[in-house]
Amino acid sequence: MAELLANNLLNDIRKRRNRSADSNSDSPESKKLKDVVDDESNCEDEQNDEVMAALDSMETIGEQLSTILSRLKKLDIIESSVKNIETSLANLEARTTKLEDFEAVAKKDIEDLKNSCSFNGDQCKKSKDALKKQLDGQNERIASLQAKEKELSDKISELTSKGLYLEAYSRRENIKFFNIPEPPEGDEDTEETLRAFMETELGFRNARTAEIQRILSSVGRIRWQSTRKHDETA
């Protein structure tokens, strides 16, 4: 609106100047007539000069006003740019704030994760130590059982050796007799039968006094013969 007012003022000043120039280019007749009325129009001329001076001053003011308006327009553009920059800065600041908040949350999450990992690591270490201790105990028990097993195995081997030795010794001290005639019916004194067999059949002179701990007999009939011999007597 101010720019339009300044333009109208400048146009009015230009029109007044053009009228003054037209009056200076009049014909000689017009000049003579003008000279006649010069005295009467002196006051009017002075007024016109004042008006022209005022118009010049107004034109200068209008030009200055136009310059000011142009500068104001530039200021408006600058102000708009500044507002855009301020808006961009505000948006950037908001984003920066969000990033800072996100960074804080991320740091907290990372710290929590570190604490959790540390806790889990400690728990794993404790579990590992407990399992190792338990395993060591099991290994000790296994070693103890293995030692006992070896001891028992050695004892078994020793007893087996002793048993074999005793069996061999027993077999060495035992004597088996075969084809001893069966005693008459009613006479079942096995020891007497054996001593008589040793004395008569084998010619053992000390058969009556020899030490006999025990006698086991096993009778097996082969067949009936005149002598009625049995399979085995021991």
Can you put this structure into words, describing what you see?
- The protein contains four helices and no strands.
- The protein has 234 residues and is mostly helical.
- α1 (2-24) runs antiparallel to α3 (38-173).
- The longest helix has 136 residues, at 38-173.
- The termini are far apart.
Give descriptors for this structure:
234 residues, mainly alpha, 0% strand, rod-shaped, coiled coil
Helices and strands in order, then pairings?
Layout: H1 2-24, H2 28-36, H3 38-173, H4 190-200
Biased composition (Acidic residues): 37-47
Keywords: Coiled coil
Coiled coil: 128-162
Helix content: over 70%
The helix count comes to 4
* Overall 3D shape: rod-shaped
**Proportion in β-strands:** under 5%
Which consecutive residue ranges, at least 5 long each, have pLDDT under 50? Answer: 221-234
Order of SSEs: HHHH
What is the rounded distance between the termini? 156 Å
The biggest sheet amounts to: none
Structural class per helix/strand content?
A: mainly alpha
Query: Rg from C-alpha positions?
Result: 76 Å
Keywords: Coiled coil
